[in-house]
Amino acid sequence: QVQLVESGGGSVQAGGSLKLSCAASGTLYATNVMSWYRQAPGKQRELVADIKASTTNYADSAKDRFKIAREYVKKIVTLQMDSLKPEDPAVYYCHARTYKAVWGQGTQVTVSP
Fold first, then answer.
1. pLDDT, tens only, 73-105
2. Cα pseudo-dihedral 59, 60, 65, 68, rounded to 10
3. Which residues contact 103 (CB under 8 A, 6 or more apart)?
4. How many whole angstroms separate alpha carbon 60 and alpha carbon 101?
5. What residues have CB less than 8 Å from 92, skipping those under 6 apart?
6. Is pLDDT at 29 greater than 90 in this prediction?
C-alpha cells in the first residue's frame, strides 16, 4: 500500500523559491504517474505538474517556473518552485496514480507580497 508524505512548504516572499518533497512508501513503478496538485481556499484542487517515467507535464501557471523531478531509488518526487507569485499560495498535495488514487496530507505554501 502506497503512502505519501509531503514536506518543504513554508512562507516565502514573492519572487522567492521553495522546494517541496514527497516521500513515498510502498511499491511504485516508473509507469505510475506522480503529480503535484494544489488547492487554494475556496477553489477547486488543480493539477500543477505530473511525471511519468521521463515525461513531465505542467499547468500553464507552472510552466517555466516550476520543475517536477523524481528520484526512483529514494522514492521521492520533488517540486522546485521558483519566481513564486501572490497567486501561488495553497495547500500542495502529492498524488500517486496506482490502482487507486493516493494522496498525501498536503503542505502549506504562503507567498507574501
1. 889 999 999 999 999 999 999 999 998 899 999
2. 20
3. 4, 93, 94, 95
4. 23
5. 6, 9, 20, 36, 37, 38, 48, 79, 106, 107, 108, 109
6. no
**Which neighbouring-strand residues pair with 20?**
79
Contacts 24+ apart (CB under 8 A), 45-51: 45/93, 48/79, 48/92, 49/79, 51/77
Three-point CA angle 76, 78, 82, nearest 5°: 165
Amino acid 8 reads G
Task: Report yes or no: 58 and 83 within 8 Å, Cβ to Cβ.
Answer: no
Residue in 9, 21, 37 with CA at minimum distance from that of residue 95: 37
| pLDDT tens, residue by residue, 6-15 | 999 999 999 9
Identify whether the C-beta of residue 41 lies closer than 8 Å to the C-beta of residue 113.
no
